[in-house]
């Protein structure tokens, strides 16, 4: 089992979205969700970390981060949903889908 006491949210997410993963690593994805639910500030920290990973220039890392986001939406409850619904997070996602303008 990948679960280790004292693992930070960032550590769980880095393992879950490692670009060298050959496929989604559900052990770390669920570990990340569990850690969010354990920590008082878990949802706020997790959303910030996820926004950064989703914007990764490494496509596989970004895709894995979207899978983690989906798992969190299913497993982390109302506190997490409230953070995802804030403009701060939504604006970060808009950056991903907006066309890049070069002047």
UniProtKB/TrEMBL annotation:
Region listing for Disordered, in residue ranges: 1-20
Signal sequence range: none
InterPro entries: ENTH_VHS, GGA1-3, VHS_dom
GO cellular component: trans-Golgi network
SMART domains per the UniProt record, alphabetical: VHS (SM00288)
SUPFAM superfamilies referenced in this protein's UniProt entry, alphabetically: ENTH/VHS domain
Any single biological process term in GO: intracellular protein transport
Pfam families in alphabetical order: VHS
A GO term, aspect molecular function: ubiquitin binding
Residue stretches making up the VHS domain: 16-103
PANTHER family: ADP-RIBOSYLATION FACTOR-BINDING PROTEIN GGA3, GOLGI-LOCALIZED, GAMMA-ADAPTIN EAR CONTAINING, ARF BINDING PROTEIN
Protein name per UniProt: VHS domain-containing protein
